[in-house]
Amino acid sequence: MRATRGAARAYILTAAVVALSCVLPALGTGAGTPWATVGLLTGLYLVCELPGRCSFFGSSVPIGAGSFFPLLLAAAFLLPPAAAALVAIPGSLVGPVEAPRATARRVWRTAQLAVTVWAASSVHGLLGGAATLGGTGTGPDRLPDLPYALLPACAAALVFSLVLTALDGSILVAAERLPVRRAWSGLLSRSLGPHLVHGLAGLMMAVLWRGPYGPLSALIVLLPMYISCWVFAQYHREHAAHRATIRALVQAVDIKDTYTRGHSERVGQASVLIARELGMDQGRLEVLRFAGTLHDVGKLGVPTRVLRKDGPLTPQERRVIELHPEYGHEIVRGIGFLGEARAAILHHHERLDGSGYPYGLSGREIPEFARVVAVADAFDAMTSTRSYRRGRPVPAALEELERCAGTQFDPQMVRALVRAVDRHGWSAATVVVTADEAIRRPGAVRGRPGPPDGSGTPGLQTSADRRR
Fold first, then answer.
1. Is 386 helix (H, G, I), strand (E, B) or coil?
2. pTM over 0.90
3. Which of 389, 388, 416 is nearest to 401 (CA)?
4. Which domains are assigned to the chain?
5. pLDDT, tens digit, 9 for 90 and up, residues 43-66
């Protein structure tokens, strides 16, 4: 805790004191705490959190606060507020947390969840939620009053979400010194829907728990819930690994080719704008973003002296540059999740009239993704400000693309970009200098007129543009 900011440390200790005051009533003599239910729910939550700390399970187990909120909400529905808050403490204390400041994070998470569950249980009790769950008497009296049980359960889930996000934002203000508005921005909108779903799952578990078959039947909800959490966590880990792979490759290209730093990300962004206008589905959009972002990864195979050469390229150097699509295709050949992106990386310098490279494909022989990336690539190259020339205005770049549509670019892709820019605008590329810090570097090549070449950048050319 010593490494934590003073304000954050004080805030965490205050939250811990509040959490302690929430659970103390359950520990008093004569409180009537249903210890059997508390023990079972606490044990279940503990079992759900422990695998994340066990090396035997590796990283394939869903860990972290949030995976088992339905179980905590079930406790809020089944128990008095103080007893429900008690359920969250052991599992939160032993659960995995991120370093550094693991102790402070663990204390904060425990206090946060205890207070949140207490608040949710209090609201559920005030609205008469316990009576709607059934489980008392005999015959029909043991059945839950489901239509009416939904109202207190949803209200409790809403309070759960409000309190949890309020505490999340406040710790960011205290620990990270974020502005208040920024700290809470988007927290509730992102979490409210999932928390309401957690509340319904918790209600189902509570109903089964109070039903004729008792706590064992509640495991029918818990097991598929745990499996779904595992699948969801695996999906996000896989996506995170994909993004990390893309970032590593793009950073390697940016380090090697300082003339076009930042260009790859913007081509990915422009490619997605075009694809959305074409009505591509969401799954293809993500792959197309990868294609645009990695279109120049083959530069890793081009000698640095050629990429950074200030003067005009010799014919031999030009031939070396024109190998970069094939180098890129070889680099990403074994990355399965790229799918159609690999063809775009190989063919993004092909031209509609067949004069491009590496294979001189024409018309519809050129893959759709490659035709999209070619337009996005040329657009960003023209509108980006670099150390050796200023970027063109967006209208002038679009006009040049339209002039070359049908010969160099697919007219459909050009029209889609024009519509997308009209709808959403394009400002980032016009203000970013994508070269080294030395903008006025001696010997930088200035723009000079020249015919469009096979690189895909029409109009104004420089030796650096021909290295794209």
1. strand
2. no
3. 416
4. 6-238 (no CATH), 257-467 (1.10.3210.10)
5. 988 887 775 544 434 444 444 444
